[in-house]
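User: Batch of two.

Assistant: Item 1 of 2:
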Amino acid sequence: MANPTDDHGEIPSSLPGAVAASAAASATAATRDEDAACLRLGVMDSDKVEVLMIAEAAALLAKREADHQKLGHTYSLDVVNGLFRPAMNYCTRFDRIQNKTAVLAVRESFDARASELGLHAFEVAQLVNLMPADAEEAKAVIPSLREEGKIDNDVLNSLLMELTTFAK
């Protein structure tokens, strides 16, 4: 899975692939057999789609807003599609990571660990977004982690302890 940062460690200001994926998902959602518990994620199964943590989405939206203001636009970003402010409010409310540096560190650390442990990008994003207290809670809220032999509780608890060092 590709890192969501550019060559300078910056979070990109736009994700055209995500927009296209969103449109494709809307068009085909009714015909897909999706089940997050089994990691059948519809259009998100594609290698071309980046699974974002809420903290990354918050950073992208904040960058978009700053760019908008820097360009001197006087109209609200909600004029474009009516969803900017609600999305920004949601991300601000549920973002659990301290700052941009921590967001980048979480992505780097957890992408590497996920590969080693056989975790799907969706599972990693859910662990970061939800920050469950322990392995039992993680498996209760992320059903795909319950799969027999998926991940040992001790390993998952260790991963969750590491995650708490980045929390607000």
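Item 2 of 2:
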Amino acid sequence: MSPRTSNGDLNDAMDELLNLEEKFYKEGYEEGLAVKAKDNFRQGKQYGLQVGLQRFLLLGEIEGYIDVIAAQNIDNTSLSKNIEIVRSLLRGLRFDNSDETVADFDSRVLKIKNKFRTILLVLNRKQNYGFKDSIIFDMLDKTSSSLGGTLKAYVEDGIGTDDVSFNGKQQDW
């Protein structure tokens, strides 16, 4: 070093060197936040798709069965009435994510399941309309659960990430 270098310049250079660690720490922290936000968005989207599949899979099966049953032209006023009730309940489903819509969805799904069970009871009593085997709602529910899988969520516990499975709770979401 030349004798002309002042102590101020030397102190500034040393401060800059000492602040490198803090500078890189802040840059790494900001980069980590950006990556985590992107990962959270992706995981949230995957979770939403999984929940959507699980919530609507059974309803799609029920609608398909209703269409097939209606095409059979079975002369039964109770059956026809219940089919129309299920169809109107299905048409009334909304697809936004507000608290009111979720509560309405849960209420409608319960009504749809109960009306569909009634339809199946009527059909199972009238086996001579071309249905070889009895259709039981539990069979449809199991099929839906096996196709849709179980609902999974990831919970941060402070130590690490735990995988939590909500088996049997698919219909509650």
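Residues 124 and 131 are 8 Å apart (CA to CA).
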